[in-house]
Write a structure and sequence with these properties.
The chain is mostly helical. The chain contains 13 helices and five strands. The protein has a three-stranded parallel β-sheet with strand order 1-2-3. It has a two-stranded parallel ribbon with strand order 4-5. Helix 1 links the parallel strand 1 and strand 2. It is globular. It binds tryptophan.
Length: about 325
C-alpha cells in the first residue's frame, strides 16, 4: 500500500486556544512525524470569509494561526503547510465539483439547516435571510480542499464529519460521471483526542466566547484560569475528576503519572484555589518557550510568509498536474 495522505484545514477565525491545541494542533504535529503518511495542513482562509467580513481580522488570524503552528514545532519540511488562498486550483476545482453536487445534498448540511432553523425560530419570513452562497456552498469548497490532494484521512472534530462524508459523495459522483480520479476520503475522529471545556464549562469554542487562548501573556493566563467555573466544594472535601474542566485541561498537558497523582489529590480533597494556581504554573511553564517563539514570529511576518509560500509551491506542484487531468476529464481542453 502507498503512503496515506492525511490532510486537514484550520479556518482562520480568531486566535488559537487550548482546545484547538489539545484537539487538533498537537495530534496534527504528531501525525506529521509519521513515516508511513504524508501530511497536508493548511489555513482555510477562504472558508473564514463565510463568517468574517472584517479584512483585518481575517488577515490577523491567518498570521496568528500560522505562527502558532510554527511556534509549536511543526516541521514544514515534512508536512506541507500552506494557505488555501495560495492554491488557485482549489477554487477552480470547487466550481467543477459544484457541477456534480446536488443542491439537495447541500440542503441537508447541518450548518445551513441550523441557520434556516434560527431564522424560523426568530419568526423571520425569509428562511434564507442572511444566508450567503458561501455558507450554502461551504461543503463544496471543503470537498475541493480534500479531493485535490487525494487525501485518504481527514482528521476533524465531530462537527465536521458530515462535510467529509459530503466530499466522499461528491467524489463518487464525479468518478462515476467522468473518470475515477478521486480518492474517497474518510473522516478521522479520534475518540482519545481531548475535547476541552471552556471557562463556563461548555465546550471550549470561539462561538461560545469561553476560550483560553494558547499564548496569552502570563498575567492574563492566570486571570483566565482563575475564572474557570467550579462547584462549591471546600478544600478537604473529595472531588470528582469526571466533568471537571480544571482536571481536563491538566490532563491534556500532563504526563500519565502526573495525571494519576492528580487523581489521588482530587480524592484527598485538593482545594480549587490551590489547583487553579498549580494549573496556571504548569501551563505557563509548558507554554513559555512556544509563547516566546510565537511572539517573535508575529513580528517576523516575512519569515512566516516565506514558509507558507514554500508550502504553496510544494502543494501546487501536486495540484497543478492533477487539475489538468480533472479539466481534461470534464472536457475543458485546448482546442488546437
Ligand atoms: N471546515 C473546517 C473547520 O471549520 C476547516 C476545513 C476547511 C477543513 N477545509 C477543510 C478541515 C478540509 C478538513 C479538511 O474546522
Amino acid at each position: 500500500m502507498g503512503k496515506q495522505i492525511i490532510l486537514t484545514g484550520v479556518t482562520t477565525t480568531g486566535t488559537p486556544h487550548l482546545g484547538n491545541y489539545a484537539g487538533a494542533i498537537r495530534p496534527a504535529i504528531e501525525a506529521s512525524k509519521r513515516t508511513d503518511a504524508d501530511t497536508f495542513y493548511f489555513l482555510a482562509d477562504y472558508h473564514s470569509l463565510v463568517k468574517n467580513h472584517d479584512p483585518d481580522a481575517v488577515h490577523r488570524s491567518s498570521l496568528e494561526v500560522a505562527a502558532t503552528w510554527l511556534a509549536l514545532g511543526l516541521d514544514t519540511e515534512r508536512a506541507i503547510f500552506y494557505r488555501q488562498s495560495d492554491i488557485p486550483e482549489i477554487p477552480e476545482l470547487t466550481w467543477i465539483l459544484s457541477a456534480v453536487t446536488a443542491k439537495g445534498l447541500m440542503n441537508r448540511a447541518h450548518a445551513y439547516k441550523a441557520a434556516v432553523a434560527a431564522n424560523e425560530a426568530s419568526g423571520s419570513r425569509d428562511p434564507d435571510g442572511g444566508i450567503t452562497m458561501a455558507l450554502f456552498g461551504y461543503p463544496v469548497l471543503m470537498a475541493a480542499d480534500i479531493l485535490l490532494f487525494r487525501a485518504n484521512r481527514v482528521p476533524v472534530g465531530k462537527d465536521q464529519k458530515q462535510h467529509v462524508e459530503m466530499a466522499r459523495d461528491i467524489a463518487q459522483r464525479f468518478n462515476h460521471n467522468f473518470a475515477e480520479l478521486f480518492v474517497l476520503p474518510e473522516a478521522d475522529i479520534d475518540a482519545h483526542t481531548a475535547v476541552l471545556s471552556g471557562l463556563d464549562g461548555r465546550k471550549m469554542s470561539k462561538s461560545y466566547n469561553n476560550t483560553i487562548p494558547l499564548f496569552v501573556p502570563e498575567d492574563k493566563l492566570r486571570k483566565l484560569i482563575m475564572k474557570i467555573k467550579t462547584n462549591s466544594l471546600e478544600p478537604g472535601e473529595p472531588k470528582e475528576t469526571e466533568g471537571c474542566t480544571l482536571f481536563q485541561i491538566y490532563q491534556a498537558f500532563a504526563t500519565a503519572p502526573e495525571v494519576e497523582t492528580m487523581r489521588t489529590r482530587f480524592r484527598e480533597g485538593i482545594g480549587w484555589g490551590e489547583l487553579k494556581q498549580e494549573l496556571f504554573e504548569y501551563l505557563d511553564a509548558h507554554l513559555r518557550d512556544a509563547r516566546n517563539e510565537f511572539e517573535r514570529l508575529l513580528v517576523d511576518t516575512g519569515h512566516v510568509d516565506a514558509v507558507l509560500q514554500h508550502g504553496a509551491e510544494r502543494a501546487r506542484a501536486i495540484a497543478g498536474p492533477f487539475i489538468a487531468r480533472i479539466r481534461d476529464a470534464v472536457g475543458i481542453r485546448r482546442l488546437g
